[in-house]
Design brief:
Structural class: alpha+beta
Helix content: 10-25%
CATH class: Mainly Beta
Number of helices: 5
Number of strands: 15
Shape: globular
Distance between the termini: 33 Å
Largest sheet: 13 strands, antiparallel
CATH topology: outer membrane lipoprotein receptor (LolB), chain A
Strand order of the largest sheet: 8-7-6-5-4-3-15-14-13-12-11-10-9
CATH superfamily: Lipoprotein localisation LolA/LolB/LppX
Length: 268
């Protein structure tokens, strides 16, 4: 049962909404049935949608005034009865550490310190990430991801207007400098980033479609942050609810890998 629960937990992605986010940590297609994409020659550019989103959450100046974020909350897989707590640390330029304590499973951690990507879980122990898993984690760890910096994100192209998570949304193709691609959805009315979708590497190998929905934006200091992340992958729903965001409180030591990972690094 523990192994099954860990496999379902998978990996979180972009640290809790790019802060977040995240995260992890690691989705089946979740666009409601019957809603179809609409192409329109008058579509706004991808860059203008990013700019509108940044303004909607507080503005670029407010975002750049933040150097670290610390988010805490809860994790659940409703259909499986799995619950736990989650904590995400992130910092400029691309440091991240996600820690989840899952009932009946134990502690799962994943991190990137700017050089090394690593993972620790109760079933497989410590490991160093390589290949696509490492590239995905580095992209997820990009602190300025919400700003879509051109040197890190090489394409931001609006491909249509559609419906996502029950809202009218613009669908935007995003390509990272690493070559990773995903689609992002921006609310037509709110301007907020309301979701993402794209293939991700699963534990044990192989790609699976994943859809992430960002909901319930609330103010934390000068910035608006989503407080609910719902992910679907291979028919499994994962729900993260964020209770707190703190800015500029994370110390560099938070990203030091645990001792068992340091031992692997030393032994390479």
């Amino acid at each position: 049962m523990i192994d099954q629960r860990y496999r379902m937990f998978g990996r979180k992605t972009r640290p809790m909404v790019r802060a977040c986010f995240a995260v992890s940590a690691a989705i089946a297609l979740a666009v409601p049935a019957g809603l179809t994409a609409r192409q329109d020659q008058a579509l706004p550019s991808g860059r203008s949608l990013v700019d509108k989103f940044v303004q909607a959450v507080g503005g670029e100046a407010a975002y750049r005034a933040v150097d670290t974020m610390h988010a805490t909350g809860t994790f659940e897989m409703p259909a499986q009865g799995v619950t736990g707590t989650i904590e995400v640390f992130s910092a400029r330029p691309s440091n991240v550490r996600l820690r989840a304590d899952i009932e009946g499973v134990g502690r799962i951690e994943r991190g990137y310190d700017g050089k090394i990507g690593w993972s620790v879980n109760p079933i497989e122990g410590p490991s160093l990430l390589t290949g696509r898993q490492l590239r995905e984690l580095i992209d997820d760890a990009l602190f300025d991801g919400p700003l879509h910096p051109p040197d890190k994100i090489t394409e931001v192209t609006t491909v249509g207007q559609t419906a996502f998570d029950g809202q009218a949304a613009y669908k935007v193709k995003v390509v990272f400098a690493s070559g990773t691609e995903q689609f992002e959805y921006f609310g037509v009315e709110s301007g907020l980033l309301i979701g993402m979708e794209g293939p991700r590497e699963m534990p044990g190998g192989g790609l699976a479609p994943r859809v992430s929905m960002l909901r319930d934006y609330k103010p934390f200091g000068a910035l608006m942050q989503p407080t609910r992340l719902v992910q679907h992958t291979l028919g499994i729903e994962q729900v993260v609810t964020i209770a707190t965001y703190e800015y500029n409180t994370v110390k560099a030591s938070a990203f030091t890998p645990p001792a068992e990972v340091l031992a692997l690094i030393k032994g390479r």
